[in-house]
Design goal:
Radius of gyration: 24 Å
Strand order of the largest sheet: 6-5-4-7-8-11
Largest sheet: 6 strands, mixed
Number of helices: 10
Order of helices and strands: HEHHEHEEHEEHHEHEEEHEH
Oligomer: single chain
Structural class: alpha/beta
Helix content: 25-40%
Distance between the termini: 41 Å
Shape: globular
Length: 362
């Protein structure tokens, strides 16, 4: 679990060359899911910088506490209905379909051309083969199957303020699931806890509020793998094998993973409408001055001592974070996948509304 602790003071200052090497390593390791770890004596300045993190070691994740059964999921959904869903539905004026491209027309049949038919629907291949003009008929696709591919690995259980990325994941799933099932659509889920020895749990796509509550409850009860780096590729490849019919697929993750997930994402987007929902925290983009701290990788348990007083380290960290952001944008663009970014510092409904408006303009 992500935590925070200050390193013990040394009798003599560490070697500056070693600190620089550690700082360079930290800038690289941070992209693999590192965050401040532990709990210990820290200065008031450090405590202010880490506001909202001081009780991480002793408190459960907001949405990951055990117990409560469907009652906890029902309480979450009721809260979202009052605080997000009604407001979002009003702002979208009921047109939640603007969030997807998956709604449209399905090919139904061919028939001979009749005077007055729209020539845009002419099937020229069939016309040439049969020597009789034919047009295509379509029917409106009124329903959709939506799948939530949920990354519940250790790096998602982090937040520098009052909200963690896992809480964002839970809220997003509840909001979108409620909007979809409320209009008669089916939702399913794949829950990936991290590590290479655990297959994602699959919940078939069904409709109804109770099914959504079951999905949220299973999500709350799924703990991150104790050890092992995230292999997002395993989740995406598993989805390709399970999803046979064209669907809307939300890949909800912070995309802190071993390399190799880029190609499976692109292949998945050829078969389905894929939307990458990226979870992020401001602390993953820039580090304040914490002083000497020990960083712990939430997924492997590896620890590293760094000096965040070093402005050079903070600059290298920010540069590495910016490069990772650019690399992610390039990957999504090559894969033909739109990205919705949700941060722990911003309102989800505004982010969803902005995303819907951008897609509607295209």
């Amino acid at each position: 679990m992500f935590g925070w602790r200050r390193a013990e003071r040394r009798a003599a200052p560490p070697d500056q060359g070693a600190l620089a090497a550690q700082a360079r390593a930290a800038a690289a390791w941070s992209m693999a899911g590192l965050a401040p770890s532990g709990a210990g004596g820290r200065s008031d300045a450090g405590a202010r910088s880490a506001k909202g993190m001081k009780e991480i070691d002793n408190a459960p994740t907001q949405d990951g506490a055990r117990g409560g059964g469907l009652g906890q999921a029902d309480a979450l959904l009721r809260r979202l209905e009052w605080t997000v869903i009604r407001r979002l539905d009003g702002l979208l004026q009921g047109d939640y379909r603007t969030l997807f491209r998956g709604f449209g027309l399905d090919f139904a049949d061919l028939r001979e051309y009749l005077p007055g038919d729209d020539v845009r629907y002419m099937d020229w291949n069939v016309t040439a083969r049969l020597q009789v003009p034919h047009v295509r008929e379509f029917q409106e696709d009124r329903e959709v199957a939506a799948w939530f591919l949920l990354d519940l690995s250790g790096s998602v259980d982090f937040g520098s303020g009052d909200i963690r990325k896992r809480a964002l994941l839970s809220d997003f799933t509840g909001v979108m699931g409620r909007l979809l099932t409320g209009h008669g659509n089916r939702v399913g889920g794949m829950l990936y806890s991290g590590g290479s020895d655990v297959r994602p749990a699959v919940l078939p796509a069904r409709t109804g509020r109770r099914h959504l509550l079951h999905l949220l409850d299973r999500m709350h009860g799924t703990a991150a793998a104790l050890r092992g780096e995230t292999r997002l590729r395993d989740l995406l490849e598993h989805a390709r094998g399970v999803l046979k019919r064209r669907s809307v697929v939300f890949v909800v993750s912070d995309f802190i993973s071993e390399p190799g997930w880029e190609m499976p994402l692109g292949m998945l987007s050829r078969q389905h409408e894929v939307i990458a929902v990226r979870l992020s925290d401001p602390l993953e983009m820039a580090w304040p001055d914490f002083g000497m701290v020990v960083l712990e990788d939430a997924e492997t348990g590896d620890q590293l001592l760094v000096d965040t007083n070093d402005s050079g380290f903070r600059e290298r960290f920010s540069a590495a974070a910016a490069e990772r952001e650019a690399a992610l944008r390039r990957t999504f663009a090559r894969s033909g996948v739109d990205c919705l970014t949700l941060t722990t510092a911003d309102r989800m409904d505004l982010a969803l509304l902005d995303f819907a408006r951008r897609r509607k303009r295209r």
